[in-house]
Amino acid sequence: MKKRILKDFALSQFVVCTDAGLSSEKNRIYNTLGGRGFITTQSIKKLKKHLKEWALDPPGWHVKTGDKAIHLSDIDDSFGNQTTYFKERWIKEGNLEQRLLVTFSPKYKHYQQTIRERQIERALKKGKKTVFP
């Protein structure tokens, strides 16, 4: 598909945005050719162990590039906090050097917690209606 876009639109530089399903090393390398770039999502669960540990480590978060690093225990963890925190580093996998960027949002954290709590409530209600012999 990307080759066809290059041919059909005579574009040589663009940024490809994909989910993890299209982020193989081969695809990422292809997406850097000719001055192109890529952005891809990736589950923290699927990172290599040392990168997962780095991503989940509480120190080293930022609000803006170049600002003082923040420890997650020092942030406002209220639902109203709309700030997105990030940490980043360069990694090299095979022949590909790339920047890994991890984000954290208290608002999204609370959103996910609310969804989980509702799922548990529904499961408990459904369990009460079930009659066991």
Describe this structure in words.
The chain is an alpha+beta fold. It has two domains: 1-41, no CATH class; 43-133, no CATH class. Helices cover 35% and strands 20% of the residues. The protein contains four helices and four strands. The chain has a two-stranded parallel ribbon. A two-stranded antiparallel ribbon has the order 3-4. The mean pLDDT is 85.
Mean pLDDT: 85
**Structural class estimated from helices and strands:** alpha+beta
Our estimate of the beta-strand percent is 15-25%
Number of helices: 4
Which value, in Å, is the CA radius of gyration?
20 Å
Helix content range of the residues, please?
25-40%
Biggest sheet details: 2 strands, parallel
The secondary-structure element order is HEHEHEEH
Low-confidence stretches: none
Query: How far apart are the first and last residues' alpha carbons, in Å?
Result: 57 Å
Cα shape: extended
Query: Strand tally, please?
Result: 4
- If strands are numbered along the chain, what order do they take across the biggest sheet? 1-2
Number of domains: 2
